[in-house]
Amino acid sequence: MTSKTQELNYLNACLSIVVVGASGDLAKKKTFPSLLNLFADDLLPKNIVIFGYARSDIGDDGLRDRIRPYLLKLNHPEETVESFLSTVRYQNGASYGDIDGWTKLKSHIEGFEMSNSTKETAFNRLFYFGKCVSINHKRKHWIDCIDYL
Question: Which of 22, 94, 113, 145 is the right S-S partner for 102, CB 3.0 to 4.6 Å?
């Protein structure tokens, strides 16, 4: 295997990205547009799902509707934006420490991974924290929830 092949091997993997704080301004104005740029430049695997996690009860379509206007401002064809949005899912929780919300998210991630990875392909998870947790005991509980995944 050449080094170039090894470098691009991640493109055959299955990738689950979790954007914590997905319904907020940072996510819609910066995080999702940045992910769209990577997607449009074919720098993300084809087997990808992007899960937003936050407290707002908006659902998959609600999140897509919130971020779509910010994505359409970028210089990508509308078809690329819609293709990207088809990879976006949403899970809410009562709080960022809500074990039930994280359990549902874990189930969705595992379902995606089981249907999109094989023995020959790996699956990876990337967590982006767009939500600042400034209180230490809450931060510890939050990390415990992520560790659960």
Answer: 145
SS3 at position 72: helix
3-state class of 31 per DSSP?
helix
pLDDT digits (tens, 9 = 90+) for 108-149: 999 998 888 776 667 888 988 876 555 444 555 555 665 555
Cβ pair 120, 80 in contact under 8 A = no
State the CATH number of the domain containing residue 20. 3.40.50.720
Between CA 58 and CA 62 the distance in angstroms is 5
**Per-residue model confidence as pLDDT tens digits over 79-89:** 999 999 999 99
Widest CA span in the chain:
48
Angle (nearest 5°) at CA 29 between 24 and 34: 115
44: exposed, middle or buried (Cβ count in 10 Å: 0-12, 13-18, 19+): buried
101 is written with which tokens? 């919300």
**Distance between CA 121 and CA 101 in Å, rounded?**
28
Residue 111 structural domain: 3-148
DSSP classification of residue 86: T
